[in-house]
Amino acid sequence: MTITDLVLILFIAALLAYALYDQFIMPRRNGPTLLSIAQLRRGRVDSVIFVGLVAILIYNNVTSHGAQMTTWLLSALALMGFYIFWIRTPRIIFKQRGFFFANVWIEYNRIKEMNLSEDGVLVMQLEQRRLLIRVRNIDDLEKIYKLLIENQ
């Protein structure tokens, strides 16, 4: 096993750990889930570039008769990238004391101001940061509003 294979195994393990955390562990942290809303995906161009580059590496490894283990590891990396970027949907998960946005826990008392833009983006102003929440279904904004009013 080469250094390349070890690095690939490390990246695959990191992506798998992230996928398991995002799918199974995060919804169970900080109490029961009150509301889980699907968000719009941002820029798929990066994901196409990543999976395309890995596909080029697979092709290069196969044509140069590289190690079969490396080909399998590159294929697993491409599949993990495809899952993370294309199959998994980003979600905002609301709990009793706060919510998870982009895998970061934010308590409700950190919200200083909320606005709704004309194009249906909920803007939450925190102490030093602005969150732009783009939901897939525009009706979900009303659910978020009702939940925030109940918990404040």
Automatic annotation (TrEMBL):
Write down the InterPro entries for this protein, in alphabetical order.
DUF986
User: Topology with regard to the membrane?
Assistant: Multi-pass membrane protein
**What cellular component GO annotations does this protein have?**
plasma membrane
Q: Which domain of life is it from?
A: Bacteria
Instruction: Give the subcellular location.
Output: Cell membrane
Q: Transmembrane segments in this chain: where?
A: 6-24, 69-87
Q: Does the keyword Transmembrane apply?
A: yes
Q: Which UniProt keywords apply?
A: Cell membrane, Membrane, Transmembrane, Transmembrane helix
Provide the family line. Answer: Belongs to the UPF0266 family.
Q: Which NCBIfam families match?
A: PRK02913.1
Provide the protein name. Answer: UPF0266 membrane protein YobD
The source organism is Salmonella enterica subsp. enterica serovar 4,[5],12:b:-
